[in-house]
Amino acid sequence: MLSDTPGIHHVSAIASDPQRNVEFYTDVLGLTFVRRTVNFEDIFTYHLYYGDERGLPGSVLTFFAYPREVEGRAGKPGIHSVSLSIPEDAVDYWVQRLETHGVDVEETTKFDETVVAFRDPDGMEVELVTGPSPDLPAASDAVPEENAIRGVRGVSLQSRSPYVTASLLDTFGFDLVAEAEDVARYRLGDGRRSTVDILTHDAPYGREGAGSIHHVAFGVADEAELHEWRELLLERDFDVSRVKDRQFMHSLYVRDPGGILFELATEREGVRVGDVAEPGSVLTLPPWLEADREMIEAQLPPLSTNPEAEER
Known about the structure:
- By secondary structure, the chain is an alpha+beta fold.
- The chain has a single domain, classed as Roll (2,3-Dihydroxybiphenyl 1,2-Dioxygenase, domain 1).
- The protein has six helices and 17 strands.
- Strands 1, 2, 3, 4, 13, 14, 15, 16 and 17 form a nine-stranded mixed β-sheet that branches.
- Strand 2 and strand 3 form a beta hairpin.
- The longest helix is centred in the C-terminal third of the chain and has 13 residues.
- The radius of gyration is 19 Å and the shape is globular.
- The termini are far apart.
- The relative contact order is 0.22.
């Protein structure tokens, strides 16, 4: 029997310069670089994973890094922004930290929660949000644990058909909990209490590229349940992929008629590379690509996890 998703598993976006991406998300935001691998559909492209120390579901942001990618453009259909949880008393810390690193910030409120909004180096919209949290602190040398990001809180999206997208969220277990001008908030009542905000104002059509968010993934218990979800979604005439082996999880992709790409991913004990002091320093490949490791590594751009140390 299918159960509601426990919440957001990860969010995946598109970046340009992989080195700049690593430096921003580790040195500035204080996330842990938990895995460096490749896009399994484009093996000469990095797929970079950040999260808490173990890369647990609910803490992870991933990026496909295309050095020559065109600049993305926000709009429908697409995921407008990602929200990361921070402690209530960490707002001033983050405003000061981001400004010190030359990042323009805007402090606002949304549904009575404080939001520190900014753009990453590729222009992706990120929000640091107070309120209910997955409580997966990304403790690192860069950011003290008391101020650290607590995990992925949610996403905001722009759908061609908000009511259809809302119906799919309902199927996944989300409830409508609040409405304001041009936005409807959906939240899971249990688990990680993830949020999805559907922006209802009119918007131009967007363009996928650097700085755009590719998809949001929700967790499922195991591979057997993933196949059950696939059958249900096919019965309801959704555009659904086959179940895919991602080495450290299994995944299913569904694009709703509103144009939003969702993923369902199996819950595992984190995506961090085990027993490696700096997991992001090692390129991990699935068994079916190991024979081509030398060729793949030769085609990938150099990537340092500690550029300052190398300069010294």
